[in-house]
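Human: For the file, kindly provide a plain-text protein record giving the amino acid sequence and the backbone structure tokens, at your earliest convenience.
Assistant:
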Amino acid sequence: MGSYLPMPSYWQLLLLILPVFALIAIGAVMRRVKWLSAEADASLLKLVVNFLYPCLIFENVLGNAALRQPGNLLLAPLVGFVTIAMGIYTAYYGARAIGLTQGEGLRTFAFSTGIYNYGYIALPLMVALFGNESVGVLLVHNVGCEAAIWTVGILMLAGLSLRTGWRKLVNAPVFALVAAVLGNTFDLGRFMPSVVSNVIHMSAACAIPLGLLLIGATLTEYFGRPRELFDARVTLASSLLRLGVLPVMFLVLAKWMPCSDDLKRVIIVQAAMPAGILPLVIAKHYGGHPLTAVRIVIGTTVLGVFLIPLWLRVGLAWVNV
């Protein structure tokens, strides 16, 4: 297993996540001073998703002994799918309980609250706490998250067909993951030329920082209307669910599910995550209620700065991995 802190303190964990949020803040500043223009967002996002992120997948999957265990390879994506679907439906009934209806953000609330930030914040935390073997399990787990978003999530948000949702899974990261898993299974990494592995390593190192900068830049377009960013009903209810109720459900799963320690660590980290950024873009594209998504993302992310270390510490102590 990778090296990790056996029981980090709250402040050690806070120091681990602060660079993540600092990069998001720097991205926002870069947008404000026009060093990172809105016109560049689409091309930079394509670069991250279609090249840098696949390199990150190869870096962490190829040569990963933890992913030679069938349990990790098969159970991890199933856990990703189930936890996202569970979150979406829990949030849906929570939204109905606080009186949200269709047309004023009911479905967007369910979609945005149910999807946790399984990538850009979780990845650097996994590296810092547990090392590359657990990160490989995280990346396989995230395939299940993607599958849930583009099937259960899209059906919730816009009522699209299952066939339309599954088509979204045909993308560069999934192809890279399949290739890397096959290469890891047959130990093909030892045949890779050092020049290629060095290029992959350098490119992988850029994926998360650039992604976090883009998140910060994307959020700034809403900062010009600060009064709209907080709604007591939406922000508080989503925060209670995403950072209160759902973490407990995740940790119960990690405690009692018969699976590897690596997968348990993935579940612990995901339990602490705020809402993901992706729903902002998807809600716009599929006719949802973008302002509801913004309120959820900003509210849970701000609270997450303080609650992520707390949930990580609770999870590590209770699950004992």
